[in-house]
Records
---
Amino acid sequence: MTARAGARHHLVSGARSHRGMRRLLNEDSFVAEGSIFVVADGMGGHEAGDVASAAAIEAVRPLVGLGVLAAEDVVAHLEIAQAAVRSIDTAAGRGAGTTFTGVVVAEQDGEPYWLVVNVGDSRTYQMSGGCLEQVSVDHSEVEELVAAGTITRAEAATHPRRHVVTRALGSWPAPEPDLWYVPMVPGDRMVVCSDGLTGELADARIAEVLREHAGPQEAADALVAEALAAGGRDNVTVVVVDVVAERGRAGADAAAAVPGAEDPWDDTLPRENREMEGVG
């Protein structure tokens, strides 16, 4: 699909979600439309994960048609999402929960920017100049161990507690989202995904697949297909968003004609790291 982003850019996006090869239910949800491109992953070990992720996405869906968004708008809707997930009925002593990550259209000093938001261990990446960089920081036990120098990044990939998240919508106290502003540059590509992708493919392979596929829908399809071929042990969801300059509108419209995420296959510049303070 194509969306306008400020006065000079258009966005072309594609998305794919699949339950994986071992799961009976897809607990991932996403929205990739208008001003917002986000993924929520109902967490394993929590009841009603599919309901939780869907509730979080529905809470932010009103942002879709609002154009350029302020951080305060996003945080306010995340608070609504938190309340919605907390209200889900589960068995005594257990609670629903979900990760939440992605990008929304924003501005800084009149210039188009991405606002990256993250709670949990789903990920948001930026590809610029053919190089892939993880923008979000995983809220997980192993990420804390890596940051502390206790284990290496390689050890984290197989650590027995690698799936334990330290922040999630639905937890209490309410989690504080991480927020960053990233310049919106024509030619750049943003990738938002659940850990069903990153648990199967290394970042280097994700980057290769992204370089091999010019269209965002093709790229999303290919990444999900590779994750499934690699084992598909979890639900996998991928959203790919390309930034296209205004003069590229005709090409963007053509790309938008690529089939979207709903078909019978479905089951359901370097970063400017300015973490916002005093928001939320």
---
Amino acid sequence: MTNDSSKKFYGTATIGEKGQIVIPNAARKKMKLTKGDQLLVFGPHDEMIALVKLSGLESFISTLSEKLNTLNKTIKKKKK
């Protein structure tokens, strides 16, 4: 669980001619982003986007999947 102190404002980004943006340096360092990293782009609201580092999401989903499998096994045992 996160608290308000973990939320950061890293600055602004301007959209260039080709639709590209530059992620502020502090955010790149914090997320350990390097050239070639893939980001998922979500639109939780009409005027908002969120960027998620793909490698971090893959790790999270893998861990969550393991936990869900364990939970499912426990539930099946309890039903017997």
---
Amino acid sequence: MSEFLRRFARQFSALNKDNLQSLGELYSDDIHFTDPLHEVQGLAQLRDYFGELYANVSELRFDFHGFDQISDCEGYLRWVMSYRHPRLAGGRVIRVSGCSHLLWHDKVYRHRDYFDAGALLYEHLPVLGRVIAWLKRRMG
């Protein structure tokens, strides 16, 4: 069991729009962050990205439930993200499962998130969501 991953998850869960300066406690200055929708290089860009993320939602929470260290400085976190956006899903909470692949020395220098971008966003857009639901029914 990785104490580093547990500590990282605890600190990451505590992030909000008012304490993004603490990203520097988690990430190195040269952090390379990737998710299915964005790619960010450097701590300043990561702060900007998280700032935009928190500005656009009324609620955002990560519940971590898996802490899998696979080598000295590499591991995976499994999580469920819950968020609420006033213009998506009628303002209801949206939940998406995912995992994060992390590489670190003292701090994380590579963070790659894996999740279903459709479940996160596209399925909740008014017109596109109906099209995706129709496609899922046809293919399922």
